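Long-time lurker, first post. I've been practising inverse folding by hand and with some scripts of my own, and I keep getting stuck on stretches where the structure tokens seem ambiguous. Below is the full token string for one chain I'm working on. Before anyone asks, I'm not after the true native sequence, just a reasonable design that respects the backbone. If someone could post their per-position residues I'd love to compare against what I wrote down in my notebook.
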């Protein structure tokens, strides 16, 4: 169907003061991200710490406006909307954060936390209707309705994340941005929360933007994967294509480090040099070139734009389809 979300060259710059003797300047946390998201689909945004994932998530959920670029939600241009039109748009796109404790008010019962969005957004529901809706959602995310009058500190991390998810769904959004929703949880609890997210997606017809630093987490839940590096798209394609035929050397390095990669690929483990450069002073040309194992003369001087066929895009001059084991180019897309 028509995209529920469309991002066109989204950018976000922060001005930073790095101390008395350091230059004041600007950081391009997000330096130009474009994608479309179809209804009920899951797009994973993957990249290491500092690559701009949360900044992108805050723009998509209208928490922060982009510095430049365009954002469309359900076909409406919502770039930089404010006031009443922003308030009217808020319910459509909700965010779930990594740390559910930080996003829940410790002085509020979980029922009050779930009822709050209904109150703030003038849904016109009576107190009894709000109560009923909150308790129904508490049950829907797998918690006992008797828990409704308890406080967040009485719950485990996994239970708190269920509450945060329930709260995000109270206004029946079309899009939910999940910022590292399972990263803070024990491995045993992760699968439960991921299963719950899958069930809720089907039941409520949700589109997800699933932010993670870990490719192995997104493999089984995402329809598409967008790999970010220093605020830019390194690679974007269907999950199948990105895992079966990773084309950007950064994606290959990330995959070679994930325990889920198949044994064939794990042999060619790629260790990247150095750390993510500061976005305060990004490398010229391809932003990945100082760490790239296959960089050549063009890379430090020219910047590659994402390109490719069948919706599998790669921002790399050297990226070529891997024509392994008789597989045809583009077959996975
Ligand atoms: P992590 O995996 O650690 O959560 P991330 O991919 O979510 O990282 P962001 O939090 O979006 O990355 O940050 C991207 C860059 O923008 C970082 O260099 C960060 O320091 C900078 N940044 C983010 N928010 C601000 C801000 N409000 N003011 C100044 N710089 C910021
Ligand atoms: Mg983040």
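-- Answer (accepted) --
I ran through it position by position. Result:
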């Amino acid at each position: 169907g028509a995209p529920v979300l469309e991002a066109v060259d989204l950018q976000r710059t922060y001005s930073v003061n790095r101390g008395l003797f350091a230059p004041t300047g600007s950081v391009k946390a997000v330096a130009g991200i474009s994608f479309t998201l179809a209804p009920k689909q899951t797009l994973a945004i993957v990249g290491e710490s500092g690559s701009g994932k949360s900044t992108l998530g805050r723009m998509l959920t209208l928490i922060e406006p982009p510095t430049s670029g365009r954002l469309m939600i359900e076909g409406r241009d919502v770039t930089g909307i404010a006031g009443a039109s922003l308030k009217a748009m808020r319910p459509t796109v909700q965010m779930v954060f990594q740390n559910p404790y930080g996003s829940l008010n410790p002085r509020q019962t979980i029922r009050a936390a779930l009822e709050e969005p209904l109150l703030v957004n003038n849904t016109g529901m009576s107190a009894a209707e709000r109560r009923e809706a909150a308790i129904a959602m508490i049950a829907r995310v797998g918690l006992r309705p008797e828990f409704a009058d308890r406080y967040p500190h009485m719950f485990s991390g996994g239970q708190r994340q269920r509450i945060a998810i329930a709260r995000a769904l109270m206004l029946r959004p079309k899009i939910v941005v999940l910022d590292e929703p399972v990263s803070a949880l024990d491995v045993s609890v992760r699968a439960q929360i991921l299963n719950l997210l899958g069930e809720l997606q089907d039941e409520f017809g949700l589109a997800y933007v699933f932010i993670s630093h870990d490719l192995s987490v997104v493999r089984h839940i995402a329809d598409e994967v967008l790999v970010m590096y220093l605020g830019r798209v390194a690679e974007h394609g269907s999950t199948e294509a990105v895992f079966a035929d990773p084309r950007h050397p950064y994606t290959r390095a990330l995959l070679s480090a994930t325990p889920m990669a198949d044994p064939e690929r794990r042999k060619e483990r790629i260790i990247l040099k150095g750390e993510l450069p500061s976005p305060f002073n990004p490398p010229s040309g391809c932003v990945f070139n100082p760490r790239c194992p296959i960089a050549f003369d063009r890379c430090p001087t020219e910047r590659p734009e994402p390109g490719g066929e069948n919706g599998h895009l790669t921002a790399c001059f050297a990226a070529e389809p891997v024509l392994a084991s008789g597989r045809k180019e583009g077959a996975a897309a």
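A couple of notes from the structure itself: The two ends are 18 Å apart (CA to CA). Residues 246-333 form one domain. Happy to go over any region you disagree with.
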